[in-house]
Amino acid sequence: MGKRLSDLRGKPAHGDPLPAEPDVVSTFRFVAAALRIYLLREIGFSQDQCHRIAIRNRGVREALQLPDPEDADWNKMNRSGWIMGGEDA
Hints:
Blueprint: H1 2-7, H2 22-42, H3 47-56, H4 58-63, H5 74-77, H6 82-85
């Protein structure tokens, strides 16, 4: 098992691109991001909370093709309670 784990070094989990066409990679990232949001909804987060999480998380935001929050106050978004409290950025 240690050998198999060491063989994974330098693979996609470590920043190398996925070995696939860009369209396939884009679809994979979209599905992974959508699944993350789905799981948050299943454990009880509201739609607004999930949207705030997606905005805050760059990977999810880019995978779901959400607009960049150019006018967002990042200090406010990184404050504890921003997601749970529901304060808009």
